[in-house]
Amino acid sequence: MIKSVCGYCGVGCGLEFDKDKLIGDVTYPINEGSLCSKGISELISIDTSTRLLRPHIRDNINDEYKVSSWEKSIDIIANKIKETPKDKIGFYLSGQLLTEDYYIANKLGKGFIGTNNVDTNSRTCMSSAVLAYKKSIGADFVPVRMNDIFKSDLLILAGANTAEAHVVFHNQIKKAKKGGLKIVVIDPRYTDTAKVADIYLPIKVGSDIDFFNLISKRLIDDELYNKEFVDNHINNFELLKNKFKRVPVTKMLKRTGLTHEQFEDFFELYTSSENIITAWTMGLNQSVQGVDKNLALINTHLLTGNIFKDGNGPLSLTGQPNAMGGREVGGLSTMLAVHLGFDKKSIKKVSKFWKTDKIDNKPGLTATQMLEANLDVLIICHTDPVYHLPNRNRVEELIQNIPMVVEINAYSNSETSKFAHVLLPAAPWGEKEGTQTNLDRTITKQEKLTRTSIECKPDWEIFKLLACGLGYEKEFDYANTKEIFQEYQEMTKLNNYMDMSEISYDKLAAQPFIWGKDIKTFLTPDKKGNLFFVENKLLSEKTNLEFPFILLTGRTRDQWHSGTKTNLPKTLLKYKELNFCEINPEDAEILNIKNGDAIKVISRRGELTTKALITDTIREKTLFIPISNRDVNYLTNDLLDRESLQPDYNHSATRIERV
Ligand SMILES: Nc1nc2c(c(=O)[nH]1)N[C@H]1C(S)=C(S)[C@@H](COP(=O)(O)OP(=O)(O)OC[C@H]3O[C@@H](n4cnc5c(=O)[nH]c(N)nc54)[C@H](O)[C@@H]3O)O[C@H]1N2
Ligand SMILES: Nc1nc2c(c(=O)[nH]1)N[C@H]1C(S)=C(S)[C@@H](COP(=O)(O)OP(=O)(O)OC[C@H]3O[C@@H](n4cnc5c(=O)[nH]c(N)nc54)[C@H](O)[C@@H]3O)O[C@H]1N2
Ligand code: SF4
Ligand SMILES: [Mo]
């Protein structure tokens, strides 16, 4: 029997592999033996006809790919990199890479090629939360753990659909509810998550800042905030108090679409709850004001003092299995490594550690900037930007201007593969080993369960080959993932709150490690939390008579994003039709649309054809299309948050036509 961990979502469930069977690990603290359909079906996805099994190359994206050798393919890429100015090279990584993969790619890009254009799809996912945590509590540090729900009185889920996106955690929420936990769900859709709520608040899309500001203002006005905590541990209180004197309360409540009674019922529960966790995900992060939405939410915890104690705190629910580990390593272009930035001192420390003098001192391009930056080489690994970036028609135009696009993928049917020149076959989950950090800082180990397909290589090894092709054999002389992990462990000593040196790599699979367990104070220089006054600036795309609907996009339980691993003929667990667009019955009636009708959804940027699913679980004038519909981003808007540069995926103005 081998113990390993699921490679899908940020919950990071432990599992056991016995000959050819996968089951949940009953001794594992997070899932206690249970797995969701994705975890159970991990093995199925290793063995499908759509695996990418050999390197492929072509000169032009209109040509057919030809099978190539590793040697030749790496040569072509290395030669191109050597002749390209470093600021014209980009690495587009993924929160699904293992920590060792991330470490090597980051070291190669930032440390030796000398470009900080090393970013990740987490930019489209977590970057607003990263920025908000840094601003308010001083570091990209999640100060709550999932198990805290058992010590809490109230769990608020804002823009998070745990029933479909963090399934096993959702089961734990249901268990905690039996023990007395109250649950509030804030979502424009009455989701499966909302079904377990004590109070469901059908908020209007994009008005979460108003909602959280209403809470903060009331806490201050009614003197219900924690005065002692604020006096001793919090900055900017007077400023916030003064700013709140002039906010238009009635207008704010109106914007949320909630009634006075709904808010009062909620506020009564809120103020009578001693321990509170507020969890959120894409409903807040993916926004032109994603950082501000996070800050408005975190403000409430700073005012009440519901932070850094059991059963309390602002809990960002990371989506991908190792988005957190990637951030720790330094996989965002806006940081260098181990949570260090591009200040002189940090560059000096990291240069010394890596024994290099090539590190550039300014942040690199973000994933959401790379395609329009006239790059000459773009290396994409474990993610599918043509599928996942907003405003796809423009993405397709831009990617065609890049002379060399390299895609490293374990499967052959991504959308990006249509625009690449070189395809390199990676070994997927089960065929490789390495570590990952889940959404609440638990470091676990994926184990190799089956032989690696002959020509496939783990992602770290592919970056190592590339490093060697560029002449850095000595600096990238790793024999296995353990050696890389141990170097990374050593590196975490450069950051005073992140030391991971006590972990034993060999014991990790059986004994996960939780880092930062003892951090119970703010990580800002003055050890105080920072309040920020933020306002809903209504910056998202406006609806009008021509485009009267707001489009939401999001997860369904059994599918993983583009579906290369989950939308397979052999996967028997499809509990939901994938091709649909939810629409409210009143809107459908006005448009004379019946359930199942073929419809065209159109935005200013593109269109797609799908089927109407009429349901009163969605607010009027709002639509929902699951992201397993690969065409979804032909519709979405490429507006970005000005600080995090995360896209405003959830607020595109659209209209519907019957086909
Ligand atoms: N099954 C499955 N699970 C997954 C994934 C997957 O592909 N499939 N992906 C993983 C990843 S990478 C991520 S990031 C997470 C995402 O996890 P979640 O964010 O929980 O999932 P989403 O479905 O994107 O939707 C979030 C909710 O936000 C709501 N929402 C939209 N706009 C607003 C708004 O303005 N305000 C509020 N309050 N709510 C709003 C939507 O209606 C939706 O129900 O899931 C992870 N888990
Ligand atoms: N409209 C809309 N767009 C969105 C979102 C949304 O909510 N709405 N969410 C955004 C978010 S939060 C995210 S995280 C992104 C996700 O978007 P992507 O990251 O593009 O989605 P995936 O389908 O998970 O892509 C992972 C890729 O890695 C490949 N792969 C699998 N295993 C391996 C391996 O071991 N090695 C390598 N090298 N490759 C492998 C898979 O075949 C797949 O092509 O989408 C973003 N885009
Ligand atoms: S909840 Fe997440 S980690 Fe757990 S089995 Fe499901 S996909 Fe895997
Ligand atoms: Mo994500």
UniProtKB/TrEMBL annotation:
One GO molecular-function entry: 4 iron, 4 sulfur cluster binding
GO biological process: cellular respiration
GO cellular component: membrane
UniProt xrefs under Pfam families: Molybdop_Fe4S4, Molybdopterin, Molydop_binding
Keyword line: 4Fe-4S, Iron, Iron-sulfur, Metal-binding, Oxidoreductase
Alphabetical list of InterPro entries matching this protein: Asp_de-COase-like_dom_sf (IPR009010), MoPterin_dinucl-bd_dom (IPR006657), Mopterin_OxRdtase (IPR006656), Mopterin_OxRdtase_4Fe-4S_dom (IPR006963), Mopterin_OxRdtase_prok_CS (IPR006655), Prok_molybdopt-oxidoreductase (IPR050123)
Name under which the protein is recorded: Molybdopterin oxidoreductase family protein
Source organism (scientific name): Candidatus Sulfurimonas baltica
